[in-house]
Amino acid sequence: MLNIPRSTFYYEPKPPNKNKQIMEADLKDRIERIICEFPGYGSRRITEQLKRDGWAVNRKRIQRIMRENELFCVVKRKKIWTANSEHAHKRYPNLLKSLHTDRLNQIWFADITYIRILSGFVFLAAILDAHSRKVLGYALANHLKTELPLRALTMAIAQRAPSSGCIHHSDQGLQYASMDYTSILLEHGFKISMSRAGNPYDNAIMESFFKTLKNEEVYLWRYETTADVLKRIPFFIQEVYNKKRLHSSLGYLSPIEFEANINQNLMPHTSY
Given the DSSP bridges, would you call strands 107-117 and 120-129 parallel, antiparallel or unpaired? Predict the structure, then answer.
């Protein structure tokens, strides 16, 4: 009389797919573990990491899970300047204008940042290879004397022994413009390049590294003493950033993986 098919009265809704629910829970758990290890990862890097781990996922699904479970992390902190460009030392020109890197040891970036502790600050000087984003040298100290970046430079040179002509790019700060520092650069055949005063974009790769360091390591730990910093920062640089952290600019490889592929002639041309 109601023109309703007889089968409608016998219809039973299908129970929820328990396997799908379990898989979704497992995926959420894996995302949470990735975020615990790499707190600064967004949905793009997490998707790439999951694919490397064998998950068949797309970014929209990962974004949905992260949004529903509030797994996004954004940390912003006030910047403290570490460069003192008020000095009488020679200032070198910026050699990076319209220059693209296509090999290792073509351009090195150098800079200094700070890490807050209860009694003040610990300063980190670091040197990166522009092509692979690998941290080649670093040093930590409670001061901003030239000796700090010199230790980072010495470490990088010992690791790479670059041929003459490698560009060393930094800001115009006193430490990098000093005779003690520039004489070592010239002795090893570096071309010296410096950013324009007050323009951090000329050294954007270092700014990006420091941002990653702060968001994924420094802001997540309560550093009370210099000893805390000396223990955690080398581990993050060597075991996390260089070895495991995926870089979108490197085709979602870590710096060490990227360099290994270069040595096997597997990488295409890239630019900084």
Answer: antiparallel
Q: At a CB cut-off of 8 Å and minimum separation 6, what does 186 contact?
A: 192
Give the pairing type, strands 167-170 and 191-194: parallel
| SS3 per-residue string spanning 6-48 | HHHHHCCCCCCCHHHHHHHHHHHHHHHHHHHHCCCCCHHHHHH
Tracing tokens 């290879």 back to the chain, one arrives at 129
Residue in 91, 133, 139, 90 with CA at minimum distance from that of residue 108: 133
Distance, CA of 192 to CA of 169 (rounded, Å): 6
* Number of alpha helices (DSSP H) and beta strands (DSSP E) in the chain: 9, 5
H or E segment and range at residue 117: strand 107-117
Please state, in angstroms and rounded to a whole number, the distance separating the CA atoms of residues 167 and 17: 59
Tens digit of each residue's pLDDT (9 = 90 or more) over 39-63: 778 888 888 888 888 888 888 888 8
- Stated pTM of the model: 0.72
pLDDT at 229 over 90: yes
Report how far residue 55's alpha carbon sits from residue 31's, in angstroms, rounded to the nearest whole number.
11
- What pLDDT digit, counting tens, does each position of 239-257 carry? 999 999 999 999 999 999 9
Contact 237, 40 (CB under 8 A): no
Closest CA to 132 of 254, 266, 252, 243: 254
pLDDT band at 13 (very low <50, low <70, confident <90, very high): low
